[in-house]
Amino acid sequence: MKRFEKPILVTRPYLPPLEEFKQGCEEIWANQWLTNNGPVLQRFQKELSRYLGVPETNLALFNNGTLALELGYYAMGLAGGEVITTPFTFVATSHALVRIGAKPVFADIDPETMCLSPEAAEKLITPRTKAIVPVHVYGNVCDVEGFARLGEKYGVKIIYDAAHAFGVFREDSHAGVQMGRECRVSIGCCGDMSMFSFHPTKLFHSCEGGLLVFKDAALQEKLFNLRNFAIKSETECIDVGSNAKMNELQALMGLECLKKIDDLLDYRQKIYNAYEGAFSDCSEVKLVPYSQNKAYVPVLFKDFATRERVYTELKGKCNVFSRRYFYPLLTDFVPYLDAKGTCPIAEDVASRVLTLPTYYGLLLEDANAISESVKEIVG
Ligand code: T4K
Description:
By secondary structure, this protein is of the alpha/beta class. The chain is built from twelve helices and 16 strands.
């Protein structure tokens, strides 16, 4: 079993060449403009519009994904209502709901994709339900057709937490936003709204950042306003907004990383292929194959004890820091304990899943060595 000299972390952010970043800084220094809808942010928005194929009128950038969600939920009018969502996610999906005064109602997941199940969600719809918030967890695509049907049938909003799904595209005739590219649409175009996180633990980042993509272009003005305290002019404040503006250095990092996006995606695929090859002869480790962008490498073990042994021994014996995303389940955390035990499939998955290291620059031979260690640990 290989012990790495330096710790191998579950992820590392891609960093653009420092010289190129410095050149971008020169422009920011010359402008003496650091935040509040600056020119670099506007360029970043344009480039994202081009990459995703979404009109610029249907995008809004924020300083992180959590505030993007919070303000997105608020702008969609979810305050005071119930929102059906998944417990198998990062806490931000639900925290952002609670923070605007909406009540998360947890429905179970599909055991294969690990995304919210439309069938389970439908059973919980009541007259108080204002929206459904599925998560494209790990970049696995939700049953977007199933949710579109629920949206139409019950008149509820469908808002995707697509934090993990940047770089995921699909052939789609149900796209929410009219696309420039024929048939190939960003996953962010499904439903009424989607949020991408640009945190450095994501395959694409802007130091911190979040992007909302929305179907109704009229929302843009509202969101731009909400991210700037809801101040409309020097003498008018029209709502209770927040400070959720992306600054110029974040936008510059995003622009520099976007230049590299195809390579970042290709590299993740290569790492995934290395793990896939290595585990192909081992029935004790089930690689979860559904993600298009390979943002994470989740594997399932036969039971909780095995998963815990692999997690602990990788750390102790190999100096490899895998993560148990997403364990514990949200319904095991203090704010959501009243829903504990309501989602048995999610509980089972959370108890057996482990995400293995993947990032641009992780050596393929290191992914192979990690796989060999995992196989040795499970015996
Ligand atoms: N919805 C979903 C489904 C999400 O997964 C997230 C965030 C959100 C919403 C909210 O979006 P943001 O507001 O974050 O934009 C991390 C991230 O902090 C969080 O962004 C992410 N999901 C979540 C899944 O993972 P931690 O507590 O695991 O992060 P941390 O600090 O332990 O970092 C993980 C690994 O990355 C470590 O081994 C160290 C390495 N790392 C981290 C940073 C920040 C680096 O090498 N460099 C770095 O700069 O939560």
